[in-house]
Design goal:
Layout: H1 6-23, H2 33-37, H3 51-59, E1 64-66, H4 80-91, E2 96-99
Parallel strand pairs: 1-2
Amino acid sequence: MTHINRRDFARLAALAPIAHALTSADAGAQPSRAARSAATMYVGTQHGDSDAILRAMAGFGVNHICSRLPSERFDEKWSVDSLSRLRERVESFGITLDMVPLPMSSNEISRFELPNI
């Protein structure tokens, strides 16, 4: 596997438009649809999922989220009904709930509530 550090990535990213312009037969040509859609940005945030935050994220063009923990313990908030309500609430803002993280602590495994996860 090849690794690239951030500075090298930034340099390469800055050179991409120049390289495209130099290799283009017509300098005024529009980039192809494939070239335009090749750059994808995934944005992360650590804000909650209140209605105001979901409304703002939808306004910023966020389409998918990973929710916060429904509860730090496996209790009724982890039930199918509760998770379905969470998904429906998120989707009411036009956002897809892609996943919900498992409650993993940074404690030593022997002291963790669910050591078999």
